[in-house]
Amino acid sequence: QVQLVESGGGLVQAGGSLRLSCAASGRTFSTYGMGWFRQTPGKEREFVALLTWSDEMEYYRDSVKGRFTISNDNAKNTVYLQMNSLKPEDTAVYYCKWTAHSDYVGGPGYWGQGTQVTVSS
């Protein structure tokens, strides 16, 4: 079992910044990667960013490239998402996902409880 605790969401004006954090605990010795998805009402959860643990490769959905940066602190089993130049369309509940599998988007994993990000225009 892996437990994830997220923090850092909130309300911000367009163009502003927020930093999300996700701390993992439990059986984290087999981490393939950690990252973030987001979901708005009536829509499917969508991939946002991934950081692989062994080689620290970063992956992003196209709409956040150049604005969002994912990073980690291995010692703390924590992943961060720095979100800059936020847009109203970034408004969503953001979920942290931990996985031991290389199929990060479609494969199994553990999820955080979600944190609301609201960007006002």
What does this structure look like?
- The protein has 121 residues and is mostly beta strands.
- The chain is built from no helices and 11 strands.
- It has strands at 2-7, 10-13, 18-26, 33-39, 46-52, 58-60, 68-73, 78-83, 92-99, 110-111, 115-120.
- Strands 2, 4, 5, 6, 9, 10 and 11 form a 7-stranded mixed sheet that branches.
- Strand 7 and strand 8 form a beta hairpin.
- The radius of gyration is 13 Å and the shape is globular.
- 33% of the residues are buried.
Largest sheet: 7 strands, mixed
Number of strands: 11
Structural class call reads mainly beta
Order of helices and strands: EEEEEEEEEEE
CA-based shape: globular
- Alpha-carbon distance between the termini? 40 Å
Rg (CA only)? 13 Å
Beta-strand residue fraction = over 45%
The percent of residues in helical segments reads under 10%
The total of helices stands at: 0
Q: Mean pLDDT score, rounded?
A: 95
Query: Can you tell me the residue ranges where pLDDT is under 50 for at least 5 consecutive residues?
Result: none
In short:
The chain has 121 residues and is an all-beta fold. The protein is built from no helices and eleven strands.
Set down the secondary structure blueprint.
Layout (H helix, E strand, L loop, with lengths): L1 E6 L2 E4 L4 E9 L6 E7 L6 E7 L5 E3 L7 E6 L4 E6 L8 E8 L10 E2 L3 E6 L1
Parallel strand pairs: 2-11
Antiparallel strand pairs: 1-3, 3-8, 4-5, 4-9, 5-6, 7-8, 9-10, 9-11
